[in-house]
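Before relying on records like the one below, remember that each one covers exactly one chain. Contacts with other chains, cofactors or solvent are not represented anywhere in the record.
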Amino acid sequence: MPKIILNKTDTRAPKKLGKEEVKQRTQKLHYRLEELQNLLYAESKHALLVVLQGMDASGKDGVVKNVFDAVNPMGCRVVPFKKPTELEMKHDFLWRVHHQVPEKGMIHVFNRSHYEDVLIQRVHKWIDEKTVKQRFAHINNFEKLLIENGTVVLKFYLHVSKEEQLQRLQERMSDETKMWKYNEGDMKERQYWNQYMKAYEDVFANCSAASPWYIIPADQNWYKEYLIAQTVVSALEALKMKYPGMKSSS
């Protein structure tokens, strides 16, 4: 697989695509996702883990709201990963992650994830390069374990442009419906943009071939949500799931 260079990768939809047509396709995908999630829950032979990563204001919350609103809340759980607690820091870096993965029949969506431990910590040099390489290996083995246990792992990087990100962060300072999202640290992190891009590119290059990353253009929400919904639906359809028969009372 060729190396991904983010500054040469589109953040917008192809011009030939029409917004309204794509939104109609997305709506059809929502109906199909609802059917497949019900089937996943009933069969209980597989699980789905969706990992959302991206720079601040890349639209992770929007994906949770607008893609997975179609599924039954009983069969879906969203797990946000923030700064590790004091207790979590006393364990290995995957300790807090492992017990959050989905059981069979469930969809779990990670809003940020175990990849923070090879991104923000690396960018700010809180860990050395030897530790980074060790963590890449641990992450690949961890995901291999999940896959071998029947969990489909889909990892999405929401690729927003630096210009679009700035506009969205400024909206958080001026739009009262978005002010609650504002964090002054987001602007400070922009100073490390180039370092983050390099760290993400290394993540893509070092991840397991069994669980590759999907680079999602994220400047236009309608296109981003369509691509993710399409990928999730295709992955679930590939499982060839069937409803179980009636259980015996004996």
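The first helix runs from residue 19 to 43.
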